[in-house]
UniProtKB/TrEMBL annotation:
Compositional bias annotation for Basic residues: 40-50
UniProt-recorded name of the protein: Alpha-1,4 glucan phosphorylase
EC number: 2.4.1.1
Acidic residues composition-biased segments: 530-568
Subcellular location: Plastid, Chloroplast
GO molecular function terms attached to this record: 1,4-alpha-oligoglucan phosphorylase activity
Coiled coil: none
Length: 982
């Protein structure tokens, strides 16, 4: 037997993880119990403590973290030792058959080897947090788009070279092994990518913080592109296992739905009955760059205890009933954003959001109690815990924290509200009305009855605050503010507020007295006094004097009562024809101490438009935190060629941690040697994308062409339609020219699209279909050849982005002004030396300021013009540009196939109506857009100018590091400080 391989257990000591776990999930290894563990240095002992689950009233056991022995020497590990450890995992922790050491098997073994290294620092980090009882931030998000973990982890550990060499010794290539890793399907778009960048920066900057999310079994969906456009199938990212997670079966919390609320003899509210599930923790380590700090992303899966399986029903043959409880629990974490057109879909989405909030808060509270020990004081909670709600999805954190503090911890309403308000903060990510979530009050009432009670009380107290601020004199103003600011919409006003809107009625006389006055007036008019006397006598015969007095008294009393009650303004009552809803964004603003937008222009829109009334009431709550992206994943690791050049010319790689140093590139922006190296790096990256496009689409593209890229979620406001119509116009003009004219008039382009349309968003799916139809026609047109290619890359994700962004030369960020909150891909493109074409929207505004106006291609209407332009359209005053009419007619001519595009083109026509009237102003901006694209062609022909613009984009992008953003959150919102491990 050959013995040339190193012994497989050589790294057993060096990589042995600490088997620690704190109460409530502070430690990070599954298991628990009394254990000892040796890190690289030192020896520790653990003791068990317990924490109580507030929902299930049961103990969660786990050992307290060690206090010593955290030193590591990872950088001293050589490739032979790593190879030995990888081989150990392949042989003794097998997930695959032993016949051969396949790339997939090598990936899993390598990942486990890296995880061994991470666990040392992972446990050390939280052991120290527990020991020092520092204030910790918790970032709650429905999405975390992490991308592949292997490249990022070994890069942050500074072991990329060693792992490459180790795999080479084992007969594998690092790039081939890393390509085996599927992207974790835990998000959809920018929201999830931002959250993941934040986790990276938090760890890198040594801030104590955790992320919380859901562990989706199938994610959003895997996108297939067929002749019919986009088709969706379930993601399979978990089918081969996920080696980066530790399943924490010892950390779970009960989560309740339905049931009823009763008041106990102790005076407290009790939520009883209903449906109970169990949320189980799955932990994923988040390593920082050049630091031992390794933070945690905790994901929740959902299930029920084994006893909920109906064995009797199963044995009786009713298998569906037997498994019903498990299915109801597990489907909560099956799919990201399940379709909510049906009542069942709405309930499932609300269950997802509440599961995230309830399990996470129970976990946070258990950790707070464990760390506080005997000195527990709930008033300290906001000084130890900061909860950030990433968009409105985690809004239920507010009533859930109130519920736990009041119902389980015995605090008063005022005490609980003060704690909640000082703990929770809200990041707004949208100005789109449909994205500001509104939940059916009726559905919430059934699913979360106790939370509705709390929300109703918050709503009433909010209204009292509004009345106090604006008074009752100007009822029109008061009605306006209540309508805008209430949390509950189309819900009757409570009696205390309703009484402010009573219209006094005119005082009425009794019919008897009125009749007498009428008779007197009539008789006096004709001077028939005698007749008057006779009529009075007749009246007396009908009603005796006693009876008359009685009737008159009753009538007066009724009139006075009616006068005192008055008439209620219809404003105080709900409209039965309209739904009753809970406005989650309003609840976020009311219940938190901070509200921030994610770009300067967006934050101004939030203050002046979206939440203007709240801003008037609480101006100090509102902040801006311009988004950022991590320069590790989005430059250092995904673009090593360019990163090496930057480090060479700057003189160090310090820019990876301090992006301000990128500005030093400006000194060399005209240097021809740098230009030559810069273009060579871009060429190398383009060649990788040529291979990617061939593999994913079958199309062959030329690396000599400009790579023009728009990759993002497919949405009408992001205006992929404007882009593809511009391409159609370009193609039409090419077809009208001779071959010589084409070459003179246009530079070669490869126009690349990527992104998913939500499964039920019909118009977005039409856009995908249209792009692919244009591609099929253009790419097979021999007259055009390499002068124009159109590519739709299927199933766009982080890994695809990591390939496309370094290779891109022009990137399109062309949303209707005022509709994109920020964007983060625009930052990634600029960092990688890509020049942007875009509107003054979101972070484009700040990018243009930083990189220089001359290095950004600007077009289109500005945000302050949009309302007027839509009004112009509604009034029938808009006159479309002839070129826009020309391109629509060309599409309708059938040149791109037999599909009927009347609905798509019709959305750009008319002056009003749902799905019409060009709400996103494609037609308005089309002339400006195609003229700007001509400027792009002119600039690209001058490669010296273009390369200088590219360098200056990278040099000016330092502001857009997520490190800067996180420093601002930590200082201005969370009040947390870096913690350096000893």
């Amino acid at each position: 037997m050959a013995t040339n391989a190193s012994p497989p257990l050589q790294l057993a000591t060096a990589f042995r993880p600490l088997a620690s776990a704190t109460a409530g999930g502070g430690g990070l290894l599954a298991g628990g119990g009394i254990a000892t563990g040796r890190g690289f240095r030192g020896r520790t002992t653990h003791r068990r403590v317990g924490a109580r689950s507030v929902a299930s009233d049961r103990d969660v056991q786990g050992p307290v973290s060690p206090e010593e022995g955290f030193s590591t020497v990872l950088n001293s590990i050589d490739s032979s030792a790593i190879a030995s450890n990888i081989k150990h995992h392949a042989e003794f922790k097998p997930l695959f058959s032993p016949e051969h050491f396949s790339p997939l098997k090598a990936y899993h073994a390598t990942a486990k080897s890296v995880l061994d290294a991470l666990l040392i620092n992972w446990n050390a980090t939280y052991d120290y947090y527990n020991k020092t009882n520092v204030k910790q931030a918790y970032y709650l998000s429905m999405e975390f788009l992490q991308g592949r973990a292997l490249t990022n982890a070994i890069g942050n550990l500074e072991l990329t070279g060693e792992y490459a060499e180790a795999l080479k010794q084992l007969g594998h290539n690092l790039e081939d092994v890393t390509s085996q890793e599927p992207d974790a399907a835990l998000g959809n778009g920018g929201l999830g990518r931002l959250a993941s960048c934040f986790l990276d920066s938090l760890a890198t900057l040594n801030y104590p913080a955790w992320g919380y999310g859901l562990r989706y079994k199938y994610g959003l969906f895997k996108q297939l592109i067929t002749k019919d456009g986009q088709e969706e199938i379930a993601e399979n990212w978990l089918e081969m296992g996920y080696p980066w997670e530790i399943v924490r079966n010892d950390v779970s919390y009960a989560v309740k739905f339905y049931g009823k609320v009763v008041e106990g003899t102790d005076g407290r509210k009790h939520w009883i009955g209903g449906e109970n599930i169990k949320a189980v923790a799955h932990d994923v380590p988040i390593p920082g760059y050049k630091t031992r700090t390794t933070n945690n992303l905790r994901l929740w899966s959902t299930t029920v205890p084994a006893q909920d399986f109906d064995l009797g029903a199963f044995n009786a043959g009713d298998h569906t009933k037997a498994y019903e409880a498990h299915l109801n629990a597990e489907k909560i974490c099956h799919v990201l954003y399940p379709g909510d057109e049906s009542p069942e879909g709405k309930v499932l989405r609300l269950k997802q959001q509440y599961t995230l909030c309830s399990a996470s808060l129970q976990d946070i509270i258990a950790r707070f109690e464990s760390r506080a020990g005997d000195s527990l004081n709930w008033e300290d909670f906001p000084s130890k815990v900061a909860v950030q709600m990433n968009d409105t999805h985690p809004t239920l954190c507010i009533p859930e924290l109130m519920r736990i503090l009041i119902d389980f911890k015995g605090l008063s309403w005022d005490e609980a509200w003060s704690i909640t308000e000082r703990t929770v903060a809200y990041t707004n990510h949208t100005v789109l009305p449909e994205a500001l979530e509104k939940w059916s009050l009726d559905i919430m009432q059934k699913l979360l009855p106790r939370h509705v009670e709390i929300i109703e009380q918050i709503d009433e107290e909010l209204m009292n605050s509004i009345v106090s601020k604006y008074g009752t004199t100007d009822t029109a103003l008061l009605k306006k503010k209540l309508k805008e600011m209430r949390i509950l919409d189309n819900v009757d006003l409570p009696a205390s507020i309703a009484q402010l809107f009573v219209k006094p009625k005119e005082k009425k006389e009794s019919p008897t007295k009125s009749k007498k006055k009428l008779l007197v007036k009539s008789l006096e008019t004709i001077d028939e006094v005698e007749e008057k006397t006779e009529l009075e006598e007749e009246e007396a015969e009908v009603l005796s004097e006693t009876e008359e007095e009685k009737v008159e008294s009753e009538e007066i009393e009724a009139a006075e009562k009616e006068d005192s009650e008055g008439e209620l303004d219809p404003f105080v009552k709900s409209d039965p024809k309209l739904p009753r809803v809970v406005r989650m964004a309003n609840l976020c603003v009311v219940g938190g101490h901070s509200v921030n937008g994610v770009a300067e222009i967006h934050s101004e829109i939030v203050k002046q438009d979206v939440f203007n009334s709240f801003y008037e009431m609480w101006p100090t709550k509102f902040q801006n935190k311009t988004n950022g992206v991590t320069p590790r994943r989005w430059m250092r690791f995904c673009n090593p060629e360019l990163s090496s050049i930057i480090s060479k010319w700057i003189g160090s790689d310090d820019w990876v941690l301090n992006t301000d140093k990128l500005a030093e590139l400006k000194r060399f922006a005209s240097n021809e040697d740098l230009h030559s190296e810069w273009r060579a790096a871009k060429w190398a990256n383009k060649m990788k994308v040529v291979s990617l496009i061939r593999d994913k689409t079958g199309y062959i593209v030329s690396p000599d062409a400009m790579f023009d890229v728009q990759v993002k979620r497919i949405h009408e406001y992001k205006r992929q339609l404007l882009n593809i119509l511009g391409i159609v116009y370009r193609y039409k003009k090419m077809k009208e020219m001779s071959a010589e004219q084409r070459v003179k008039s246009f530079v070669p382009r490869v126009c690349i699209f990527g992104g998913k349309a939500f499964a039920t968003y019909i118009q977005a799916k039409r856009i995908v279909k249209f792009i692919t139809d244009v591609a099929a026609t253009v790419n097979h047109d021999s007259d055009i050849g390499d002068l124009l290619k159109v590519i739709f890359v299927p199933d766009y994700n982080v890994s695809v982005a990591e390939a496309l962004i370094p290779a891109s030369e022009l990137s399109q960020h062309i949303s209707t002004a005022g509709m994109e909150a920020s964007g983060t891909s625009n930052m990634k493109f600029a960092m990688n030396g890509c020049i942007l074409i875009g509107t003054l929207d979101g972070a484009n505004v700040e990018i243009r300021e930083e990189v220089g106006e001359e290095n950004f291609f600007l077009f289109g209407a500005e945000a302050h013009e949009i309302v007027g332009l839509r009004k112009e359209r509604a009034e029938g005053k808009f006159v479309p540009d002839p070129r826009f009419e020309e391109v629509k007619a060309f599409v309708r001519s059938g040149v791109f196939g037999t599909y009927n595009y009347d609905e798509l083109m019709g959305s750009l026509e008319g002056n009003e109506g749902y799905g019409r009237a060009d709400y996103f102003l494609v037609g308005k901006d089309f002339p400006s857009y195609i003229e700007c694209q001509q400027k792009v062609d002119e600039a690209y022909r001058d490669q010296k100018l273009w390369t200088k613009m590219s360098i200056l984009n990278t040099a000016g992008s330092s502001k857009f590091s997520s490190d800067r953003t996180i420093h601002e959150y930590a200082k201005d919102i969370w009040d947390i400080n870096p913690v350096n491990l000893p």
